[in-house]
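hey team, just a heads up i'm posting the complex here instead of the shared drive bc the drive is being weird again. everything in one block, sequence lines first with there labels, then the predicted structure for the whole assembly after. its two chains so it's a bit long, scroll down
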Amino acid sequence: DAGVIQSPRHEVTEMGQEVTLRCKPISGHNSLFWYRQTMMRGLELLIYFNNNVPIDDSGMPEDRFSAKMPNASFSTLKIQPSEPRDSAVYFCASSLAGTTEAFFGQGTRLTVV
Amino acid sequence: KQEVTQIPAALSVPEGENLVLNCSFTDSAIYNLQWFRQDPGKGLTSLLLIQSSQREQTSGRLNASLDKSSGRSTLYIAASQPGDSATYLCAVKANQGGKLIFGQGTELSVKP
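-- predicted structure starts here --
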């Protein structure tokens, strides 16, 4: 298995633009997590899905952030409109709920200028 | 609210030393605890997973212990090597399928 795949690896965008981050979890995993990592706050959970259903989105900063998981093999995290303070590395992770070990993608480094 | 703390924030040791990284958590009702390694600019690599019913896990030169009652876990690295230099993160999960809550990490530097 190729592991958790995220795209793009790097994204530079102007303030106010829409940004869409993509994630393909490991095949067969039924839990998917979106995290954000910054120097100041470390790793923060934004939202997670079990069996494609959002379970906890309390970490989503505000209405500008939205996440979807239309099927078991794909998820998106959208920021609209983007702001400079959204600059961070965004990680996607997946796990098989029964075994619970989580595997992370390589991350998307987002820079909003 | 579960909080995870890692001490020290940074550690520098000479090659060959044995070392211990510490992780503490405030709520002992955890499902499991996972140790990760993160290299600069990279994603997280899972090192060891300890279920709540277990006391320790070993993989090569790494040994992780868990004491739920005291809210502590340690990661022991034997005979450290420069290639071990990275940030080490611990994370706890409250229930099956639930979210991982991370500590801030310990940045380890092993000097040749």
